Amino acid sequence: MNTVTQKNFLFGGAFVWFACAAMGCSESDRPTLGMVVGTVTLDGQPLPQACVLFTPVGPGRTSQGTTDTAGRYALLYLRDIAGANLGEHAVRITTASEDNGGKESLPTRYHQDSKLIATVDSGSNTLDFILESQ
Asked: What sign does the dihedral 124-122-26-11 (CA atoms) show?
């Protein structure tokens, strides 16, 4: 994800949050969410500092998480609200960030040209991604 895309994504998320706050968004206004956690590995090793994005195939907002040093992530629907919309999602995983100058260490098949799909069910979901550099 390039810096412009990240800024647009962050701006869009901030806009949604402020719009919800202004309109009095409550828990009952939100869709039912499934909690999503998992691990991302690259060539058998944990992948730290990767952004994991779940975008619903149908309507709904993207949820995202960032992997820790052990490759573990947990998705957030909004800033302080964990989870993702129920149903099928297109998944993108990227290591490009402002912190590393926008350098991507993953093949495009995991982000720009991603064909990764995941299904989020109600309740808790553990969705691991085993990536290969070749």
From this structure: positive
d(CA 24, CA 11): 20
Which residues are registered as beta bridge partners of 88?
119
Which amino acid is residue 65, in one-letter code?
G
- Distance of alpha carbon 52 from alpha carbon 60, whole angstroms: 16
For strands 76-78 and 81-82, give the pairing.
Answer: antiparallel
The strand pairing partners of 39, in sequence order, are 72
Please indicate, yes or no, whether the overall pTM of this predicted structure exceeds 0.70: yes
Q: Give the DSSP H or E segment for 13.
A: helix 3-23
pLDDT digits (tens, 9 = 90+) for 33-53: 999 999 999 999 999 999 999
